[in-house]
Amino acid sequence: MTMKWLTREWASGSLGDDEWLERWQAYEAHREQVLPSLHSGAERLADGIDLHDAQVHTFDYRPGAALVMRAHIGHLQIGYELLELTFIDAELRLKHGASIESLRLFNAATEIVYDEIDLEPDGRFAHRILLSPAGEYEVAFTALTEWRAAADPRDRRFA
Questions:
Q1: 62, 68, 70, 73 alpha-carbon torsion, rounded to 10°
Q2: Residues 88/66, Cβ–Cβ less than 8 Å
Q3: Which residue, 38, 90, 97, 108, has most beta carbons within 10 Å?
Q4: Is this model's pTM higher than 0.85 or not?
């Protein structure tokens, strides 16, 4: 229930160049391998949804039903959007002792830095999220819906 390839050590630059590149290439190879098996919206997490530097605005988890996350995404060069992802049949997984509150999702300094998509042995999908400055979580799900709307850069939180 933690990042497998794009770990905190990988993201922070504390690995040597060779190991950093090996992990990136291993994840890219894995992503390409699972992409044909992704469907019901999950494929968008592998190709089409960029969560890098996203700021979470709402996070509504209803165990066994859905997790709805709305985030401010984008950057100055491509523009900004509000993105709402609804994970169907969601199971939120946190590290032992962590809680939604301990993730500090709504703190001005908290952003999504990297995410991974994977397949579960039971046929569900797994989406792993690495947060900065701290925290990570995983969502197992069976389908994903996506909604987008234009957003103002002033909607970003600044620490």
A1: 130
A2: yes
A3: 90
A4: yes
